[in-house]
Design a protein that fits this description.
single chain; alpha/beta; Rossmann fold; six-stranded mixed sheet; two-stranded antiparallel ribbon; 8 helices; globular; binds zinc ion
Length: 213
Amino acid sequence: MFLPTRCALCDRSGSPVCEACLSSYSSEPLVVQRSCLTGFALADYSAVVANMIEQFKEHGQTSIFRSFSALMSQVFLFGLKAANLGPLERLVLVPVPSRREASLKRGFQPAREIAAPMVAELRRSGTSVGLVNALRYQREVLDQSGLNIAERSANLAGAMQSRFSLAGLAVVLIDDVCTTGATLLEAARACEAAGASVKFFCTFAETKRKLAT
Ligand SMILES: [Zn+2]
């Protein structure tokens, strides 16, 4: 018997995410500012988005984010235009790494699962961009949830490093969610320490939730 697969978001037919749901995310990206770093996000961190990210990260539903690759590519192109980057820049996407413990538990790195189909989509549409899995944690850090803004920064200070030189590269950071921005700011610091120029970041969602301090 043929069983149609259902949309992960609304349960209508269409897999993994139906056209109707995808089209509800196609408006202009959100502009996100965290300290001196500017970024662009596809969606606000609503209950639906939070649930989708949980399905993706904690239940390994990586196909959900492959269906968003065209929309995430649009977020990137919007950022490129906003940042006034010329065609001669050596552009690379750098996924923000997960903590070692989380990667071992999940068996994959969420930001890489978002970035890889974006690069494929961008290349298909004629935008030359590379993918560099450069960053890693050079020491153990605590899970950021449950920490306040000051604690998050202290937890991450100097925690990441690039595996190799990024000299001469224009970097766009990729992550699933931007909350306080502490992780993205640490990733930017590590890329610049390796010689890159960090231009902006793209995330699937951003949250303006106020964290208890
Ligand atoms: Zn749907």
